[in-house]
Write a structure and sequence with these properties.
Helices cover about 70% and strands about 10% of the residues. It has about 200 residues and is mostly helical. The protein has one domain. The chain has a two-stranded antiparallel ribbon. The longest helix is centred in the N-terminal third of the chain and has 25 residues.
Length: about 200
């Protein structure tokens, strides 16, 4: 199989896995017709960010040919999803709007903060500033929609950011090298970066 087809196939598989991890738990949520009728613009934007942000994050890693990072992101998202929905099903905390008993922790928040934390840890803080803004907006949209309280949001944030500590490594370290050489009493320290 040619290398470009193998890379394309692995990229499609990873994006499909990420989309499935984000979409399936949300699609299976049992909201009542009454609660669906009350969805406001803020919640709709938060829901859109929930789907677009993780797929865009892993897609960007694949576009820059950082397959190792995309795999780290996918592993972290899998852990985030399992922990979040495991807690939701075992704790059964009622939502503030009383639509169901799956409030703790916030799944939206854990997924988007996992994405933002991945960008921060893998590519650096300056790239993560817009990512954290999107994650913060999504978390605020969950409180605004009366789906979660601050405790649910904080727990989702900790889960999302925490999964990056286990799987995500710094992308730049692989391309940077500190050098040292000595020759006839002369010493030289250097720094080399490959792009």
């Amino acid at each position: 199989m040619p290398i470009y087809l193998k890379n394309l196939t692995s990229s499609i598989v990873m994006i499909t896995i990420v989309f499935t991890l984000v979409f399936c738990p949300y699609a299976s949520a049992q909201d009542t017709d009454e609660s669906r009728a009350k969805i406001g613009t803020t919640q709709k934007i938060g829901d859109l960010i929930l789907f677009v942000f993780p797929v865009a994050t892993v897609g960007t890693s694949l576009i820059i040919e950082d397959e190792k990072g995309a795999l780290q992101f996918t592993k972290g998202l899998l852990l985030t999803t399992v922990v979040t929905y495991g807690l939701k099903l075992s704790i059964n905390k009622p939502r503030p709007d009383n639509s169901n008993d799956n409030a703790f922790p916030s799944g939206h928040t854990s997924a988007v903060f996992h994405s933002a934390g991945y960008v921060h840890r893998r590519y650096g803080f300056k790239y993560s500033i817009p990512a954290y803004a999107l994650a913060g907006f999504t978390a605020a949209s969950r409180i605004d929609s009366k789906k979660h309280d601050i405790l649910d949001i904080l727990a989702g944030t900790v889960i999302g950011l925490g999964s990056n500590l286990l799987f995500t490594t710094d992308y730049q370290q692989e391309h940077m090298e500190l050098t040292y050489s000595s020759y006839e009493g002369d010493y030289m320290i250097g720094f080399r970066c490959k792009f």
